[in-house]
Design goal:
about 550 residues; alpha+beta; Dipeptide-binding Protein, domain 1; D-Maltodextrin-Binding Protein, domain 2; 5-stranded mixed beta sheet; 4-stranded antiparallel beta sheet; 17 helices; 22 strands; about 20% strand
Length: about 550
């Protein structure tokens, strides 16, 4: 186990960077905790008070059922999750090794702590002891080894292969004791603890999991799975022997149960239901939230909490399929994005403009760039050079229940016409888009928040060791120079040096990449006022262990 007072050498460098103004306090907290400094110590070194904890004297009510409107999707293997919604239900039953809080600070969860070697190539994960799965099995290092091997199994096809497979393979996962695992990386990586909270990274019971979690829902979480009916309902009920204690010195959680109800994609019905008290919250993690925000922001019975986020609607082009194999065609379509107009009409201006690279302005490594201007004349010239002097007919696939996505598509269709693009919008149910999101040649895909710029770049724009695009590389775009620079950035802790690399990465995506990002979205956690102690998360994750319900 880690000795008290043992600090990673980089902590001293980070502290110096904080004192000289090279790092903000938030960046210091993020990076120092990543290399193993406890959150309490990090807050102290930054001259900040630790976030308040609930006091036993507070009035906490136990019992009751929280009702959530949320899609109930088909679920088998958690590592195969493509959307956040199914993780909302199953994160109540199974848990993660770490968790990244609303301030993007990553903390131990099923881990007691972790240590990183000076070169960031060896990570020692110390597991909490005394934790049991809901079937009575003890949580041990064997469960971590099993779960990680599932992530790295090509037959499973997890997005985690794209996230961690670049620096870790099964031979690098070592069990050193029943409660310690050591990761021997192929290259330096700073974001390992944050990767462990990627939403498909739920820890599985190695004794019972056989590919379908619903059949054997054995997790370490605060609730047990009582019902799961695809397209209908999911019910989880409180465990009596959960490992975490509440502020009242009794085992969490405070609520008796949570009921997730699939109310379909029509948001008007969900807005009516929360107003009437038929539900307590709406899961907006995979949905557009502006209509909910506009409808409920002045309702005295509803609490709306905003969150800063890197969620985006990504205009994505399959770089391995014509006409998108030609970068001139890709550049032409990107020039047809009237960003200010798209943000205003699609999302009521509730966000900031994007720049066609998948790095958010508030990511610590973001390199400031000028926003590309709408230019149909230049786009028309690119199409002519690519062999389309008379314009081009293309199909654009979108999920019909993402209202902002549909509006984005409609605005793009109108504004791309002068350049010669004749866009046929193919709307389909979100579930159908989910089935083919990596296969359509042109589409608009929702991407959720990631706390570091490297994370989504590894997930969506790289290839495996055999040169095959990773599972979530929906555009099949792989660039040798980009990949080399990204690997370098993954192992660079110094923020200034990392930002220099990102200036080049961003230039490459803007110049020859496969995506357009016209805007980054604001998001909101929406709950009825009877729901207490809710904190909005950038991913809108439902972390409800310490939530309780007021008594009526």
């Amino acid at each position: 186990m880690r000795q008290e007072g043992k600090l990673h050498p980089l902590v001293k460098e980070l502290k110096l960077d904080l004192e000289t103004g090279k790092l903000s306090r938030r960046e210091f907290l993020r990076y120092s905790t990543l290399v193993g400094l406890s959150a309490t110590a990090a807050f102290g070194m930054a001259g900040l008070a630790s976030p308040r904890k609930l006091l036993a004297a507070q009035i906490i009510h136990r019992g009751g059922t929280l009702k959530v409107s949320s899609p109930i999707q088909k679920v088998t293997h958690p590592a195969q999750f493509s959307w956040v919604a199914p993780s909302q239900q199953l994160r109540q039953v199974a848990e993660y090794l770490t968790w990244t809080d609303s301030n993007n600070i990553t903390r131990p969860y099923l881990l007691e702590n972790w240590e990183a070697s000076e070169d960031l190539k060896t990570w020692t994960l110390n597991l909490r002891q005394g934790i049991k799965f809901n079937n009575g099995d003890e949580f041990t290092a064997d469960d971590v080894l099993f779960t990680m091997n599932q992530w790295l199994d090509k037959d499973v096809g997890s997005s985690l292969m794209g996230m961690v497979g670049h620096y870790l393979d099964p031979t690098g996962i070592e069990k050193t004791s029943n409660h310690q695992v050591v990761l021997h990386l192929k290259r330096a990586e700073i974001a390992v603890p944050e990767h462990l909270f990627h939403y498909p990274a739920l820890i599985l019971n190695h004794r019972t999991f056989e590919g379908d979690f619903i059949k054997r829902p054995h997790g370490t979480g605060p609730y047990t799975l009582e019902m799961y009916r695809e397209g209908e309902r999911c019910v989880v009920k409180r465990r009596e022997d959960y490992w975490q204690m509440g502020a009242d010195q009794k085992p969490l959680p405070y609520m008796d149960s949570i009921e997730f109800i699939d109310m379909g994609a029509e948001m008007a019905a969900q807005i009516s239901a929360i107003r009437a008290g038929e539900i307590d919250t709406i899961d907006l993690s995979d949905a557009g939230g502006t209509d909910v925000y506009q409808a409920l922001k002045d309702d005295p019975d509803i609490n709306i909490q905003p969150a800063t986020t890197s969620q985006a609607r990504v205009l994505r082009m399959r770089a391995d399929l014509k006409p998108w194999t030609d970068n001139r065609v890709r550049k032409a379509l990107k020039l047809c994005q009237h960003r200010e107009k798209i943000l205003a009409l699609a999302y009521f201006g509730q966000g900031i403009q994007g720049q066609d690279f998948h790095v958010y302005p508030k990511h610590p490594e973001y390199c400031k760039k000028d926003t590309p201007q709408y230019d149909t004349e230049k786009a028309k010239q690119f199409l002519k050079e690519a062999g389309y002097p008379d314009g081009l007919d293309v199909n654009l696939a979108v999920g019909s229940e993402w209202t902002d996505v549909v509006r984005f598509a409609e605005v793009l269709k109108q504004d791309a016409a002068p350049a010669g693009f004749r866009i046929n919008i193919r709307t389909m149910p979100n579930s159908q888009y989910w089935e083919k999101w990596t296969e359509v040649d042109l589409g608009i895909t929702p991407w959720t928040h990631r706390p570091l710029g490297t994370m989504v770049l590894n997930l969506a724009f790289t290839a495996d060791e055999a040169g095959k695009p990773v599972a979530w590389n929906e555009t099949r775009w792989v660039d040798e120079e980009f990949s080399k620079l990204l690997n370098q950035a993954n192992g660079t802790l110094d923020v200034d040096e990392r930002r220099k690399i990102f200036c080049k990465l961003e230039d490459i995506q803007m110049e020859r990449g496969s995506i357009g990002i016209p805007y980054w979205r604001n998001v909101w956690m929406v709950t009825r006022s009877r729901v207490e102690n809710v904190e909005s998360h950038p991913n809108l994750y439902m972390l409800f262990n310490t939530v309780w319900l007021k008594k009526s």
